Amino acid sequence: MSARFWVPLVGLLVGCGDQKQAAPPAPSATATATVVTTATASAADGTAVAQFCKAHDAKLDALLATCDKKDAAELHAVVASGIQNSKRRCASLKDVRVVEAKVPACLATVATWHDAKLDHLQYEPACREALVGLAADGAPCELDLSCKPGSHCLPKPEADDLEHVCTPAPQEGDPCRVRAGHSCGPKLDCVESTGKCVARGKAGDACGSAQATCEEGLACLRNHSKDPTGKCGPRRKNDEGCHQWAECEGRCKPAAPTLLDGRCVSFCNAP
Predict the structure, then answer these.
(1) pTM to 2 decimals?
(2) Which residues pair with residue 219 across a beta bridge?
(3) What is the pLDDT of residues 246-261, one digit of tens each?
(4) Which residues partner with 152 through β-bridges?
(5) 3-state secondary structure (DSSP) of residue 118
(6) What confidence tens digit (pLDDT) does each residue in 113-140 have?
(7) 145 contacts 128 by C-beta, under 8 angstroms
(8) Which residues does 118 contact at the CB level (< 8 Å), separation at least 6?
(9) Taking the chain, what is the end-to-end CA distance rounded to the nearest angstrom?
(10) From start to end of the chain, where are the E strands?
(11) Domain-by-domain residue ranges, the chain?
(12) Four-residue CA torsion sign, 162, 50, 97, 113
């Protein structure tokens, strides 16, 4: 895919004229309201986002074409549904400025069906560089990509779990709400037993019941499907033993219809 697949961005007009302006009045001592100021996306930004989404959609469609629908119809339907949802969310993306030269590196992170969603791309550093958010902290959002660099789209404190706002990255030990999605951001996890943000598991760390989830790119690997816990590690390759569907780069094919345990087989071009 060519790196140059959209109209180049037009430079933004940042000032004009040389009129002198009166000094702003001193702030009132009684003023307490917080003003959320979000940079305004230009028409050129809108065009660039549309072109990004066109390339994003083509990348996901190409990956879906490699998926074996005949042998794994249920999983194929799940992946196809996720891709359609990602396309919809990309089409509604706003408050973003595209850095054209960095887009190919962003889309290159879509390597397997696990990556075929905008929710994955929003946590990739390469994509946060390719799509620079303009929304200030406190502004409503749907994806991290809309928030200014360093901030994330997180559930609004003490509000409906579906109401998200741009928020500075939480720190380890900060309080969190377990039922509110990624309330600790992409690198931390909210543990129910403590109600605090903790680091997501690295390779070799314990995972599973009452444990933090594994960091991006790793899976919780168990020795048996009935094991409540396991250890974080790279997803298993083709023909390796597996005990949960998410353990494999491809998919886990059960040894029998009534079992979860089986062997990894290729799926959606994954090894």
Answers:
(1) 0.74
(2) 233
(3) 899 998 989 887 778 9
(4) 167
(5) helix
(6) 888 888 889 989 999 999 999 999 999 9
(7) yes
(8) 56, 86, 89, 90, 143, 145
(9) 22
(10) 96-98, 131-133, 151-155, 164-168, 188-191, 196-199, 206-208, 218-221, 229-234, 241-242, 251-254, 262-265
(11) 42-134, 215-271
(12) positive
